[in-house]
Design a protein that fits this description.
By secondary structure, this protein is an alpha/beta fold. It has helices at about 30-35, 45-65, 80-95, 110-120, 135-140, 180-195, 200-215, 220-235, 250-260, 270-285, 290-305, 315-320, 325-330, 350-365, and strands at about 5-10, 15-20, 40-45, 65-75, 100-105, 130, 145-150, 155-160, 165-170, 335-340, 345. A hairpin with a 2-residue loop joins strand 1 and strand 2 (about 15-20). Helix 6 runs parallel beside helix 10 (about 270-285) and helix 9 crosses helix 10. The relative contact order is 0.10. The structure holds nicotinamide-adenine-dinucleotide and zinc ion (ZN).
Amino acid sequence: MSVRPALFGAIPGRRVPVFVDDGLLDRLPDVLASVHAHRVCEVVTDRNVDALLGRRVMAALRKGKWRAHKTVLPAGEQIKSARTIRSLHEAWFEQKLDRYTVIVVVGGGTVGDAVGYAAATFLRGLPLWQVPTTIIGQVDSAIGGKVGINHKRGKNLIGAFYQPAGIIIDPQVLESLPPRERRSGLGEVVKYGVIADAGLFRQCERSVNEWISGAESVPTSTLQRCARIKLKMVAADETDRGLRHHLNFGHTLGHALERWGGYRRFKHGEAVAMGMVAAAWMAYKRGDLTESEFKRLEEVCRSLYPRLSTLPDRNSDVTQHLHSDKKRMAGTLRWVLPHGLGRVRVVEDVTPREINGALRYALTLSRR
Ligand SMILES: NC(=O)c1ccc[n+]([C@@H]2O[C@H](COP(=O)([O-])OP(=O)(O)OC[C@H]3O[C@@H](n4cnc5c(N)ncnc54)[C@H](O)[C@@H]3O)[C@@H](O)[C@H]2O)c1
Ligand SMILES: [Zn+2]
């Protein structure tokens, strides 16, 4: 069966094929064989994804005459650790993996990041296929080549830029996602609309609630639209020094909120939704968004807000967590603020007063 990529990531000197289609999971062997002659692979997934898709993936690979072995990791952010990397490497030495063994990571951003980093560093890099099974994975984390693990000093502090040999997006697998995971993933979809695509934003306005409840699936064309934006930004700025920064819209305060919540209270996209409202509030006060644009953005983000009983008592409980982002950026905190809907700009002159006002607004919204 012939399979063709829907998109290409044109990273300088390298083209990353991105295959997008319903049911692609069953055609995994054909997709891999379109790139690799040596039919040996190591599948790595997490416990939840394994229960849903593990057998199907392994059956398809064996049917396609691939020699495939599977490793199942626990689910959750704690697997993004040096311990996971060590144990994967240990197992791969035991299994005598060589540089032609293809690593196929099936799961969300957590396994994608950790296993991607293990693959990047084993024998100086094994061919890696990302098969994302969450919205965050399909529109964001599997694309762009950032892989890594957490350190006790912070999230994603140890890692590398390592482009996969290919990416396989099967939108059908999103059907089993729990609503809260869907809501979190949609935070990133809305983000793409605001930073780069006003039409996508309008689509989110119309359909976000149906997408969260599962009454409607997120259309494949929408996922593809997001993937295309990410690929374009990564192609322009693979190592995150310029345009790629736009992808951080909503993330400056979002990260601080996640840190405040010990990475347990908020799902990533929920914190980003609050961060987007805060950034939009700043833009509105600066005259870069009209009141009507601000209210539209707020309305969409409200659907994505977490349902929480506890929120920070004081702004400073959250703002103290802005500093670790600041340390990464040579001492300056960059904010990505909307400039109309569908465009953003990066500013460095945000004052503590603006931050406090924006945070207060974003938090109050979750109490209403
Ligand atoms: N590398 C990057 O550029 C990048 C970008 C964004 C986020 N990330 C990282 O991604 C991680 C978050 O990703 P995530 O939200 O995908 O988290 P995740 O991988 O933890 O998945 C969320 C939950 O959904 C389950 N799951 C996965 N697929 C499923 C399916 N099809 N049906 C039912 N359940 C399923 C998982 O087992 C898990 O319990 C964070 O660690 C974040 O730092 C990385
Ligand atoms: Zn994000």
